[in-house]
Amino acid sequence: QVQLVESGGGLVQPGGSLRLSCVASGFTFSTYVMNWVRQAPGKGLEWVSSIDDRGSSTTDAHSVKGRFTISRDNAKNTVYLQMNSLKPEDTAVYYCSNGAGDWGQGTQVTVSS
Question: Which residues on neighbouring strands pair with residue 23, listed in sequence order?
Fold first, then answer.
């Protein structure tokens, strides 16, 4: 069955960095667009970034543009989210998803001093 397992979250100070990873299995990873989506406490889901199947094209939400970078390694069935210059408003549970409606369990990112 499809599995998406996120990792790499944690507590970081404002201005810090984190790298999230999402390992996929159960589907042909290299043929799917992959996405990162987040949910802040008490708020709805917010799309963050997407990357095409080959990793040649990415799009980012305005709120993270220039600070976050999505990438993928199809040989490792893994998608990454490099997050720099983190702000308190980036605090959220971060999920990866494929284009078929499958989601991971999420990883918590907390930005606080």
Answer: 5, 78
Distance, CA of 72 to CA of 74 (rounded, Å): 6
Q: What is d(CA 17, CA 27) in angstroms, rounded to the nearest whole number?
A: 30
pLDDT given for residue 99 in this prediction: 81
d(CA 102, CA 68): 22
Which of 94, 100, 105, 102 has its CA nearest to residue 49? Answer: 94
Mean pLDDT by runs of 10 across the 113 residues of the chain is 97 98 97 98 96 96 97 98 98 95 96 96
Q: What are phi and psi of 28, to 5 degrees?
A: -80, 90
Cβ(51)–Cβ(71) below 8 Å: yes
**How far lies 38's CA from each of 75, 82, 87, 91, 113, in Å?**
25, 14, 14, 9, 21
pLDDT value of residue 60: 97
